[in-house]
Amino acid sequence: ALKLVESGGGSVETGGSLKLSCVGTGHSYDHYSMGWFRQSAEKEREGVAAIDADGRTEYDASVRGRFTVTQDTAANTLYLQMENLQPEDTAVYYCARARGGLRAFTVLTMPAGMDFWGQGTLVTVCP
Fold this sequence. Notes:
Elements: E1 3-7, E2 10-13, E3 18-25, E4 34-39, E5 46-51, E6 57-59, E7 67-72, E8 77-82, E9 91-98, H1 104-109, E10 114-117, E11 121-126
Parallel strand pairs: 2-11
Antiparallel strand pairs: 1-3, 3-8, 4-5, 4-9, 5-6, 7-8, 9-10, 9-11
């Protein structure tokens, strides 16, 4: 089974930046869509950014223009570059692999479509 491990979270001030990484082991994900999700006490798990096997990306409107998702398929590593962080970005961030055939557009709207999840990494943005 694929194991995903996120890292790179931490506490930053408003306007700061972080780069999250998600390393997969046990199986390649180079033929699957991958996504970043976040969850807080105030909101259910929601899609943040996704990238599919064709390299197409999708972003939630709340992060578009500030976050960038990339992947290094040879290294089984997914990244999320987060810029101009705001307090409302505070959440636990998870990476996940989608079921086969799902596009990035669908990944953003359907957390249930993901079949492997990481443990999450906490991002805290201080006002």
